[in-house]
Structures are given as structure tokens and as C-alpha cells.
Amino acid sequence: MKLEFINALEEIQREKGVSKEILLEAIEAALISSYKRNFGSSQNVRVNIEEETGEIQVYSQKEVVEVVEDDTQEISLEEAKTKHPNYEIGDVVEEEVTPRNFGRIAAQTAKQVVVQRIREAERGVVYEEYVNRASDIITGTISRVSKGMVFVDLGKTEGILEPNEQVPTEEYIHNQRIKAYILEVKRTTKGPQILLSRSHPGLVKRLFELEVPEIHDGVVEVLGISREAGYRSKLAVNTMDENVDPVGACVGHKGSRVQRIVEELNGEKMDIIKYSEDPKEFITAALSPSKVVKVMTSEKDKAARVIVPDYQLSLAIGKEGQNARLAAKLTGWKIDIKSESQHKEAGSPFFGEEESLEIGEEVEASETAVAEENLIEEENLVTEDVGIEEDLGDLPGESTETDEETAEQDPEEKE
Question: Is the separation of the CB atoms in 337 and 361 below 8 Å?
Fold first, then answer.
């Protein structure tokens, strides 16, 4: 290990970004261990590598004491003074003990250390690159599927899609290209571990940011997402720009933007609604594509009772309660859905607390006119009709109903 080795370290420093000084320190530490292992020495030693020439020297180190108890670690003051008269108690005496064939051992050790340090440096670079991309979206290729785990080749490293982050309706095939959400980046001894997700709501948000320039530029904000991966997602959007329709911007011309996202998510349905600070309006919109007659809210309990036409009850609740569940998650309100008939039969105030009952203002319904005489008159309560916003499910690519839901149509329409 001569001058050529030092030049090689400098080249590594330029190409890999690993400091020559750090490499030399690591090599010196490794050579100490190698010396003790190969020459059966238990004494303290120091290894010195000349940065200019690459020459290596090994020095034993002994502390100067009055009475020697361990001659591998200590030396008497009298013996120390024979080496140099200025030694005192507590000083350390160094003596070169470099073996003749130590150069070969040093070369092998140095090679191992350098390779290891380069790997660590490269892992560090990869970690720093991906740790800053947490909560972002990334594209990769499925390299293998093993024991329920999906491994995704990301180029410089590999990502892991664990079973609980996979979508139950998706099939993962070797060499398939997929987009995934970077859930977490961990530093491990084997390099960075990148945990991915296909079921996280953040994936939907990032896909909309890629497809909708208004969201990317901050003109349209995504204020909430509720998702049941593989089946349906609800997105609440808003804008401060009066000239921009936030829902229309997300849907795109003839549904082109939302359709690309639906295709990426393998047919997962999308409901895009406009956010409102009025909880009644927000809850009404969140239950899209169903129609709503009335919304009653209890601020105290943060709960709402929603009255829908009889023929819309199953649509409002959704298959296995999915639509109502997603609406509740999106709005943050507990939602109890009743048909007009059920509400009329109950004939009692909301949750039995008249003082907590609030009913929204009358607005003209966009699809079906709600007759005032069909609404329930409850004693000591102010009852007013609540209109509904335009059925967002009618927008192309925005929301699609199941066969079971579409079968239940307005009786007036049938006639």
C-alpha cells in the first residue's frame, strides 16, 4: 500500500464523495483489529498511515508506572528512562512493532474497509434522496412477489409493499409498472428501507396533483379525502378564485382528468364534491350521488340526521354502508340516514333533544321538487326544507353507481 493506494483513495473521494480522511481513519482502525487477530497481541497498538507516501507503521503503546502489573500494557519508569530520559509516570511509551509481512495483510484489510465504506456512502446518498420524498408518489417496476410482500424496483433501491398497504382488488404481477405512495423511509444496516402504499389516501391526492394543474399550482385545494381502497374515494375540494370551478377542474373536459386517475387505480370510483363551511351543505354534498331532502345537525354531539327520499335510501347508505361511512369520514360528522317514511313514522325530535335540533334553510332542489306538505311538522321545532346541490354523480367520470343502486330510480322518472 504505497503512493498508488493514496491516489486511489483520492479518486474514490472525487467519484463517490467519501472523504479520504474518513477512509484513512477507518483503515487504521481495521488494521489495529487485524494486527491483534493475526499476531495474537493483546497490547495496545496504534497504526499510522502516512498520507503522502502510504507507508504503514504499527506502534505498541505502554503506560509508564511505578510497579508493573501487566507487561503488555505497562512499563516501569526505570525501563522507560532507558529509552528516553524525559519520561515520567503516566506517560505513554511508543515502540514500532510493524511485522515484516504486514503489508499484505494491510492491503487486504484496506480493500475490505474501502468497499464497505463506499457501500455505506452509497446507501447514505440513497437514503438522503428518498427520505426527502416521503409522502410523495413514485413509479417503479414489480421485481418479485414473495409471501404476500410485493418488492418494487425503484432504480437505485427497492421498495416494499406490505400486505396491509396493498389494495384487495388489485393483482400484482412481475414486471408490472405501478405508482405507489412513499409511506416511510427507514435507515437500516442493509441500506434504506422504503415502505410503499397503494391504499393510502395520500396516493389519491398526489395523483390529482399530477393530473390537475390547478391543484399543483395551489388554485384548488384538496381539503379532505376519505377512501376505501379499490372501491370508492370521496374528495372535498375548494378554491378562493371565484372564476374557477374546483369540481370541474378536477373532473376535466368530459371527465378526462378524473378518468385517468380512475384507470391508474384500476376502476376505483371517485366522488368529487365542493367543500362548504356550512355542515349541512357539506354533508349533503358528501352523500353524493344520492339526493337529500333535509339535514338536521346537533353541534353538541357533532352528529347529523339526514332525510332522503324513500327510493334514495339504499343509494345514500351505499353497499354495506360504504357511501354513508365515507361521507362521515370526510365530514367528520356522525351521520344517521333515514328515509322520509321512517322519519315520519318516528315522529320525534332529533335524538330526543329539541334544543339541539337545527334545520337548514329552504333551497330549491335541483333534481326532484320536495313538496312542503310532505315534510314533518314537529312541535316546538322550526322546520325548513333543505335543498340539494346538483347531483355530482351526473358529471362524467366523477361518480358511478353500482348496478344495485342504479336499479332504484325516481318513481316519477319511471312514469
Answer: no
Query: Running DSSP on this structure, what letter comes out for residue 48?
Result: E
- Position 3 scores a pLDDT of 66
C-alpha–C-alpha distance, residues 370 and 375, integer Å: 8
C-alpha cell at 316: 345514500
pTM to 2 decimals? 0.64
Q: What is the pLDDT of residues 231-240, one digit of tens each?
A: 999 999 999 9
Question: Backbone phi, then psi, for 70, in 5-degree steps?
Answer: -135, 105
pLDDT band at 355, cuts 50/70/90?
Answer: very low
Q: What are phi and psi of 159, to 5 degrees?
A: -105, 160
Confidence bin at 2 (pLDDT 50/70/90)? low
Of 185, 147, 190, which is closest to residue 166 (Cα–Cα)? 147
- Residue 302: give its domain's CATH number: 3.30.300.20
- Same domain (yes/no): 247, 306: no
Pull the grid cell for residue 270.
371517485
Cell of 279: 355542515
Determine, yes or no, domain membership for 211. Answer: no
Counting every residue written for the chain, the total comes to 415
pLDDT tens per residue across span 359-395: 333 333 333 333 333 333 333 333 333 333 333 344 3
Given a contact cutoff of 8 angstroms between Cβ atoms, the answer to whether 223 and 236 are in contact is: yes
Q: Which of 126, 106, 122, 99 is nearest to 31 (CA)?
A: 106
308 with 404, same domain: the answer is yes
Supply 23's cell numbers.
477512509
Stronger pLDDT, 364 or 101, i.e. the higher one: 101
- Residues 361, 152: Cα–Cα separation, whole Å: 53
How far is residue 226's CA from residue 332's CA, in Å, rounded to a whole number?
10
Which of 101, 98, 79 lies closest to 41, judged by CA?
A: 98
The rounded distance, in Å, linking the Cα atoms of 77 and 67 is: 8
Domain tally, the chain: 4
The answer to whether residues 160 and 288 belong to one domain is no
Provide the domain limits for residue 36: 3-130
For residues 397 and 299, membership in a common domain is answered with yes
3-state secondary structure of 138: strand
- 6 and 54 in contact (C-beta within 8 Å)? yes
Same domain flag for 335 and 361: yes
In-domain check, residue 216: no
